[in-house]
Amino acid sequence: MRTSLCALCKENRSVIIRPKDRAKLCKLCFINVFETEIHHTITTNNLFHRGEKIAIGASGGKDSTVLASVLKTLNERYDYGVELILLSIDEGIKGYRDDSLETVKRNAMQYEMPLTILGYEELYGWTMDQVVEQVGKKGNCTYCGVFRRQALDRGAARLGVKHVVTGHNADDVAETVLMNLLRGDLPRLSRTTSIVTSTPSASSDPASNTNIKRSKPLKYAYEKEIVMYAMHKKLDYFSTECIYSPEAFRGSARTLIKKLEQVRPSSILDIVRSGEDMAKLVPGNDEGCGGTCSNSIPVADEEEGGCGSANGRTAGGEMATMEQQLAQNEVASENALEVDLTTPKVNGQRNDRHNSGTVPLPNRRKGKKGGEAFIPKKAPTKQTMGTCERCGYLSSQKICKACVLLEGLNKSRPKNGLEISYDSQPKEESSVNGIINGLEKTAIAGD
């Protein structure tokens, strides 16, 4: 079999086919291109400022580990002049988080970065093991997601950090865009597609709220390329998925995106770019209000899921299979695959819009224009930012999601000294599952 040369250096043998554009590269060129693209993302979006202290949300997984490694390399290479530290959240999951935190501790020594670990039990009086024991595995990710996002903000505030970077990659953003489109939640697109979001200062208590900025330097990096970079750089990361992670709606969106990627490698970035373009058309986006709309939405509702970028959301163990293949040092080879996308035939004829014309909508309701279907438009609900009456965290509701969930848990828990009391106790659903359903059905998008 004839081996091809690297498409860039034209000297070394190509061992990698980039999932993003199918370019054949050698190991050194791939690493250089990957790091250069991350640098380009950082500089074009002005993510960092000299003298800034930045906390890396570290879970021990591939995304946060690669993020820490790349940022350390680029900070030294291009002299960003920023101080990097690691911030980890201990959800309290034995057999998963305790093991991954050992990886984070090794990373802290390898990259010579200070590490701070903040636990759910310290913040909320509950570990995720206790939450799952109380409510079961159905809906437990709702608790973890809300608690984790708020915990990162609180941890950053304690450390005096005003900028947190997370390892969300292009696959994660594409999944979120697709989920919001399928749910018809277009107003959320401006937040989920933005590379920078922030939590405006809304409380005088420095422990509860400060101006915390979130950014995603890996926003345009493919998950597969992140795995390949980690393997070729021999990075130390934790690859086991969360033991409580269910097959949820995100898993379905993920599977669909992976199938699209097989047909069209650029489909992931295409979806991300489409989401960005559609977000500009949504009333209340940044371009229409001078940057005071979507950026005033709290970061706590920026992303779905609470396990970071990909942990606990991989469907079918695809990344684990890929890691195994890379570990075996198999030489990448290109398989040409052409797929003929055709529509099924109806009554012996192909159902083609170009031949048959536009399919008319059913006349469910007659409007003023005759037989055209008329569907009244709903004006998007505009959020008013305030603070939670109980904890002081930024929220569009009187009571933030975390406090609502905690109240449901504490009502169900026997009094043992850990129950949280509040000065004011508005009536909420006593059932834990009822509280989750109420959060999902609320008309306002998030806290």
UniProtKB/TrEMBL annotation:
InterPro entries: CTU1-like_ATP-bd, CTU1_C, Ncs6/Tuc1/Ctu1, Rossmann-like_a/b/a_fold, TilS/TtcA_N, UPF0021_CS
GO molecular-function term, one example from the UniProt record: tRNA binding
Biological process per Gene Ontology, one example term: protein urmylation
SUPFAM superfamilies (UniProt xref): Adenine nucleotide alpha hydrolases-like
PROSITE patterns according to UniProt: UPF0021 (PS01263)
Region span, Disordered: 345-375
Listed name of the protein: Cytoplasmic tRNA 2-thiolation protein 1
Residue span(s) of domain Cytoplasmic tRNA 2-thiolation protein 1 C-terminal: 386-416
Assigned keywords, A-Z: Cytoplasm, RNA-binding, Transferase, tRNA processing, tRNA-binding
Domain tRNA(Ile)-lysidine/2-thiocytidine synthase N-terminal: 53-241
Alphabetical list of Pfam families matching this protein: ATP_bind_3 (PF01171), zn-ribbon_14 (PF16503)
A GO-annotated cellular component: cytosolic tRNA wobble base thiouridylase complex
